[in-house]
Amino acid sequence: MKDSLLLTSAVLLVLCGPAVAEHRFERVSDDAFDIYVDDVLLISHTKDSPFILVGNSDYAYVSEFGNFRITDILQEKIHLDQYNVTELPDRTQLEFNACNLQVSVEIFDRNELTYVNVTSVPTEINRLWFRLTSTGSDEHVYGGGEQFSYFDLNGRNFPLWLQEQGVGRNKSYEITFLADQDTPDSGGDYYSTYWVQPTFVSSRKYFAHFTSTRNGQLDFRNELFHEIEIWGGPDATLFPGMLILGTGETFPEISTKLSGLLGRQPLLPDWLYNGVILGVQGGTDLMLQYLEQAQNEGIPVAGLWIQDWAGRITTSFGRRLFWNWEWDPEQYPGLDTEIIRLKEEENVRLFAYMNPNLNREGNLYIEAHENDYLIKNTTGDTYLVDYGEFFCGIVDLTSPEAFTWYKGKIRTNLIDFGFDGWMADFGEYLPPDAVFFNGVSGEELHNLWPVLWAEANREAVEDAGRLGDIVFWMRAGFTGSQNASVITWAGDQLVDFSTADGLASIIPATLSLGMSGYGLNHFDIGGYTSLYGVVRTEELLLRYADFAAFTPMMRSHEGNRPSENWQYYSSVYSMKMLGRATEIYILLKNYTRGVLEEVTTLGYPAQRPLFYHYEDDPRSYDDSMKYQYLLGKDLLVAPVYLPSSETNDRWSVYLPPDDWVYLWDGTDHIGGGEVVTIDAPLGVTPVFYRKDSPHAQFFRDVAANAPPIPRSPVPTAEPPTTPGSAVSASMDLALSAVIAFCLMLV
Known about the structure:
27% strand
């Protein structure tokens, strides 16, 4: 197990390598100084606005189903306005003082980066704030992990605490209000996310990263400075950690430096571009019938994702997955032979589901409990967490024995069984009051937990010699996930067109991750969460599919209420449209492959904001651009994220300054720097390519070889009464009844 709590392996590079970066200390007065990094002014200490502040706060956590209510009452916030400096040949040492409190800092340069290391803090404080210079509203700030609502963070604050993203994520939405009424704070807010990270990139061409794993806040509300708050306490082992700064001439250069620090994802396997991964369930026979149906309707299938492979339990909510991660032969008879046959004879791979929690009714829980492999509560007993009428223990991944045991289960029960990947779910629920083998507090481990979970999966894959061949995907993350996980997914979006929690929210989330140093993301085609009368429509499903064709990975999900929501198999038209989108995804393979190689070798994100390659265009920085992206350097993609009732199948796209060609009809748009409005019916994602791209002929071939858009039937307002009731004639009509029986709540 890698020692994630201390620092990522890349951060340890401070100990070696050439000092390429250069920080410069300039005394302004006895009360003020400036620090430049590569001639970029980043720290401006004054008596009224010092670089470091300290203080204390009373706070408490209450958690329920991955949602956290945090009360925080600030007691004091003290300006350390006095300073002393010692300039040495290889570093700058600073001491900050006020009210008999002192913080010591050393600043040094290594490997093209500048490190601000806090060497001592008063034991009586539990808060520390750093301030970096801001140029006000004309500065743009990106990152912070995975941010679904806002891409440009300037003007807002963002807490640094992992949790469920919430339902609706907008306090003005009725669905968020209803969710909050059922479970306080379960509706979420603009900042709630599965992936927080104390990292940001400025339009002033620098990044700032903090090594702390504890709670805190990125606060960009002040016109004069950016304030980063780090929580501490008597149990803190790494408080406040280090501040790491890097600059670059371009955003790609900044990405390369940041990913060199945090890590990069391995190249995804070629087989991923054989087609879509279909999320289906219900048993072996039904799984095979879904495959036959999809193939008969022309859907290229790379794999089948069967999340219920380990069986099901029954609760008042319906049938749920049995969190006991081994094959259930009653649910999937003959799966051990079918998994081999499908891969060898049909080139179709199977995928599973797993998380770091064990149902106490399962034999894996019993084994873990008997061997003391589960986290404890404060009384020394196994910490049992309620996941909705069933209780689970959480494997203590800080214990080397437990870590080795659990990654061994991944190896034996998933990899050796024959699965070529899985959803590695959860990672956000860790209780802050839990007790761990390594003695570190739950508060300090909470944000880090998905990294440990990612490392368990990654090491199991590496031990099997399958890195670069097996794909596991995660939704939760933090600093270090870049170097451990393979690809992420955007989590549990609502099955609607809302911008805060629907299809649109995936785009700024992906771009934020990219600017935080993580380059690969995908999503559930169709979304996931159906609650309070919100159900998936055919139009929404197909817009998701159109969007997915221009991403690194295509995978569908039936959602949390399959029988109430439109599925790809709910109509022949839906299957034909999904098949067409998948064909386009396959046609783009050679270009996408080159983009993914840049992720692995250079650390560039696959999906990039417009300013990434058009940094001299002010409009490309506008927050309204957060719903468009560049796939690599040469494709501009603008997914349609609103229903046709609002768009009349017309869509406006901003083209940054360049010569562009509309992919689908070859129309030139010379010069760019303008908004164009085009027809965008179902089946059409507005996509443009650079006229001077070396791939221009390739893109023309993609357009020429893309299948025609299937003829649309009479619109259907409601989904079929059961998934499959509108299936093709190639499927036995009796299947409808089987599906209705088998597909219930996860």
